[in-house]
Amino acid sequence: MPHLPEHLLAGYRNFMNGRYLTESGRYRELAREGQAPETMIVACCDSRSAPEAIFDAGPGELFVLRNVGNLVPPYEPDGEFHSTSAALEFAVQSLKVKNIVVMGHGRCGGIRAALDANAAPLSPGDFIGKWMSLIAPAAETVSASTFMTATERQTALERISIRYSLANLRTFPCVSILEGKGRLSLHGAWFDISTGELWVMNKETGDFERPVLE
Ligand SMILES: [Zn+2]
Fold it and tell me: Could you tell me the distance, in angstroms and rounded to a whole number, from the CA of residue 31 to the centre of ligand 1?
């Protein structure tokens, strides 16, 4: 007998009776024609920062990559396992997305772990420790700011890590070439899960600002 947790089956029932019913034509069209999303989002795995919910996106609209801390590693063609780089390669080279948005969020556990130099590994593999060490230099700098509160340090590193990932995106030749040609644009955003506020990075200054909504 197939088995899934009851809440998932209940959710699926609602999906089939609700969203799928109203969007079944769109799903069929996407199945026939294939996907052609214009935007890739790099977001955190955190259950509270789902891009499809925040941007009210329908099927086929967003190509979403989620990892701990919404990080993009630097371009490293070394034959190792690079899941984030693989998703990026597919989005840029095959889907030819026009936008890539790196979206961080408040109260991020990955960022908190990066700030906690004394954190014990969760397992002998210490995968999170290794992954978050990508932003270790920034984390050390922010941690040294004794005039900042713990909350301020957390928010600062959440936003710095977005700028860091955007810089790493540009180390991928396919990204920098297409951006140079004006066919791909990169964006940063930060979502405050407690208030629902979305802060968007100003391209000129790098500051995060509230967008003006019509
Ligand atoms: Zn997170």
Answer: 32
